[in-house]
């Protein structure tokens, strides 16, 4: 079995696939890649199953050497790619000969880059059919660090694609998030609803894979019952501090603060590429009702369940 030896990493390097849907009732969140579109692209380029595990690199930066020939693709935020110090292409399948050193440099114009290896990665730590690392609970493989070896699996689905995909980029101006009203949309008053669609907020530095904190909307919800409710991917929670929290892949499965809406899944891919300070706007799909009985949005964790890798 071919293995990839990690020689160096950047600030955070994780094994991620498309997560483990269907386990929220057991307290296990979805997890998986934050920019799901970019991971899918990388897997398609190398001919993998769409949900095969790859590397998610915060700010890019990973160096590895495989003990056999491998085919790789790097997507997401653009970063320089080289093999034995010779420049290689970003966003297209690239063969890496055995014992050659692949270097992925620092990401530009975005936060997260993705690396897929043909066959997918299959380290120890798979749970509930997924190799995703959940940074909140610790479920899944440990963070990727120099010195570890990652086995290459057999999650192929067809031939590689001889195409190139453009990098994911953060918006030049404001990022607009489409919000579907949630079960507690009526917990904020008319002034807060107006600010929600007219103000421009900014991503706070206290953001991570669990959620993005956005300041500037001064949403002060009415006191709730304090009872915990289910939190889907993309839920927007309004704590009494006035900030908003957009929950990402490693979010808790329940929470007690009002959920005033749910962000569209494609917008979460773009949000995952945005750094602290990024200006953010909201646009509404439908009106925010004053009624606290607004029905909750449909479940969002509906992607196909990942299949375990088939080893030789």
Automatic annotation (TrEMBL):
Residues 25-294 form the Carboxyltransferase domain. Residues 285-312 are annotated as: Disordered. One of its GO terms (molecular function) is transferase activity. SUPFAM superfamilies: Cyclophilin-like. This is Biotin-dependent carboxyltransferase. The keyword Transcription regulation does not apply. Keywords: ATP-binding, Hydrolase, Nucleotide-binding, Transferase. Pfam families: CT_A_B. SMART domains: AHS2 (SM00797). The keyword Nucleotide-binding applies. Coiled coil: none annotated. PANTHER family: 5-OXOPROLINASE SUBUNIT C.
């Amino acid at each position: 079995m071919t293995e990839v030896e990690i020689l160096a990493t950047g600030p955070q390097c994780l094994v991620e696939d498309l997560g483990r849907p269907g386990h929220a009732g057991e307290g296990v969140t979805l997890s998986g890649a934050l920019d799901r579109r970019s991971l899918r692209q990388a897997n398609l380029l190398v001919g993998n199953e769409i949900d095969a595990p790859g590397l998610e690199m915060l700010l890019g930066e990973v160096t590895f050497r495989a003990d056999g020939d491998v085919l790789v693709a790097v997507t997401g935020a653009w970063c320089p790619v080289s093999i034995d110090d010779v420049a290689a292409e970003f966003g297209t399948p690239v063969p890496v000969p055995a014992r050659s050193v692949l270097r992925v440099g620092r990401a530009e114009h975005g936060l997260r880059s993705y690396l897929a290896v043909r066959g997918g990665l299959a380290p120890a730590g798979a749970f509930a059919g997924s190799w995703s690392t959940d940074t909140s609970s610790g479920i899944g493989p440990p963070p990727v660090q120099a010195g570890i070896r990652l086995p290459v699996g057999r999650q192929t689905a067809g031939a590689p694609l001889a195409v190139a995909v453009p990098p994911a980029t953060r918006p030049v101006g404001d990022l607009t998030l489409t919000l579907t009203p949630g079960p507690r949309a009526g917990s904020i008053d008319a002034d807060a609803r107006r600010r929600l669609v007219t103000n421009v907020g900014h991503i706070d530095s206290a953001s991570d894979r669990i959620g993005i904190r956005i300041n500037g909307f001064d949403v002060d919800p009415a006191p709730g019952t304090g009872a915990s409710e289910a939190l889907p991917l993309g839920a927007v929670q309004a704590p009494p501090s006035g900030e908003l929290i957009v929950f990402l892949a490693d979010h808790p499965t329940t929470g007690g603060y009002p959920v005033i809406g749910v962000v569209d899944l494609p917008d979460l891919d773009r949000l995952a590429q945005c750094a602290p300070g990024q200006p953010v706007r909201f646009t509404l799909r439908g009106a925010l009702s004053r009624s606290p009985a607004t029905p909750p949005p449909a479940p969002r964790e509906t992607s196909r369940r990942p299949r375990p890798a088939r080893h030789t």
